[in-house]
Amino acid sequence: MTSRVPIYVWFALILVLFTQDQVTSWNDASRFATIEAVVEQGTFAIERTRFAKTGDRIFHAGHFYSDKPPSLSLLGAGVYAGLRGLGVSLDRDPARAIYGVTLLTVGVLSLLGLGCGDRALGILGARGSARAVVLCGLAFGTLFLPYSTVMNNHTVCGALWAIHFFCLLRMRDSALQAALAGALLALVVVTDISVLFFAPASLIALVGHTRRVQLAYLVPFAPILAAYLLGNWALTGSPVPPVMNPQLWDYPGSQFPRAELMGIFSHPDLAANLIYGFHTLFGARGLFLYSPVLLFCIPGGWRGWFRSDAHQWALRYAALAALGITALIILRTNNYGGWNYGVRWFASLNFAFGALLVGALPWLARTAWARSVFVGLTAVSIGVAFLGTVAPFTPMFDSQWSMGRAWQQFLTWETQLQGRLAVALVGTWALLFLYARSWSQSLPDEPSG
After folding, report:
1. What percent of the chain lies above the pLDDT cut of 90?
2. Distance (Å, rounded) from C-alpha 270 to C-alpha 276?
């Protein structure tokens, strides 16, 4: 079994079934506040919207605004305007409006990103059922799944990066492909400023190309970045991203003191930083606790770095981006992304992690026990990710164990909803094991060690 069409169909069905129809956090409330304000009031000011009490808001010149990059909210506003024209509005049917906007923006882009990510895996050398197993892990076994069901920019960022990466892999000497790849990366950065490190890391892709291709890649950055900075200036009087501009948070009732803003925060000492780094990677909110299959990115990244073929640069790009952005998360943040399942920022790196997993495939093909562990950890990761769809923006009070909080919320669900999630999970496991069995059968007999 090598066709990956069932993965796409199943992923789309999961999104249809589990996309959220309620605003459950400051994060998505802030985006829907902008969507409502733009479509219904013709302004970016959010104080007269139903979501005005969100804590993710800034204050400037007598008005409150969302602190979020505007690209996803503007896309959502376009979708909402269309739905409103069909009679679906936040006034008449808020649940249907929220569901429709989320599914048709985040959901559709996640599915498109999955398709381009899959194509990238193939170009990098993943073949047959092995490629399908990796794709199952990326689609259903990482934080990409739960955050594809809510109005969140990190999965959108990850999807746009996958499309950008696919364009880079096809670039060769095409200035058009280079320009498209550059424009997509600029959109990635302005959609999620926390992944700015993607930009310098991507320069490794330009080594050895003609100046024409290099310029074609770099030129699109200027107008897109300029539009983003000018937008910030128009709303806040400063080009600095709102999330990094402490003056915009200096108002009565502000939920974020200056010292805790992303990019400004620093840990008090090395011990505190090490503890935070541990919980970010392995502990209560750890990347490898919530997506244990990604442990194989470590040997995959190492092996891929020293791979000597035409796509070595791509694996090095993915490794540099993953390391750099992870380091920035650990060094310059302090709250694991707030009330969320795991650390949501890692959803932006989903397909970079996928590229690193490809680096491990030759070893897995030769080593039966490692392949069994890989499939087993993929199955565990899928179970953890499905639990995250219960409450991606997990309420956190006196503990950082968002997995436990999500389980508590699952237990409060109606039996019918619990059954739906269980059936979806079992169906995904069945799909995984069909591909895993086909993978093993396609390989020659190999030593077990």
Report:
1. 75
2. 10
